[in-house]
Amino acid sequence: MQIKTLMLIRSLILAVLLAGCAATGMQLTPLEEQKLDPALQRLVLGTSASRTEYDITPGSSGEDKFGVLVRSDNIDEVRKAGYTVTSAFGDVAVVRVTISQLRSLVTLPSVKNVTNGSKNHTM
Fold this sequence. Notes:
With 123 residues, the protein is α+β, with helices and mostly antiparallel strands.
């Protein structure tokens, strides 16, 4: 009887932990895994060890915006979808996005991949 009770408690704890992870968005969608580079995947998951590896500016709403490089077949689609494109050359654009915008950006059909923008450092 004690073994069954312990197994039940263990199963309940595991279920609660898994539900908590799913509720807080702690999983990447297949598109996010395919299109986001490892640094941006860590950012979305909230597992990044340091914010210094990101180009961050405060957004007008108080939510941080991150500089990313977007490779797209159609940069105009990215603009029309409401993303802040600060510059573009060929099929690459510099875009400033919040974490939630980053997650929706990868759903655009023209977006091939999104990589972390590097910070500029003065010497």
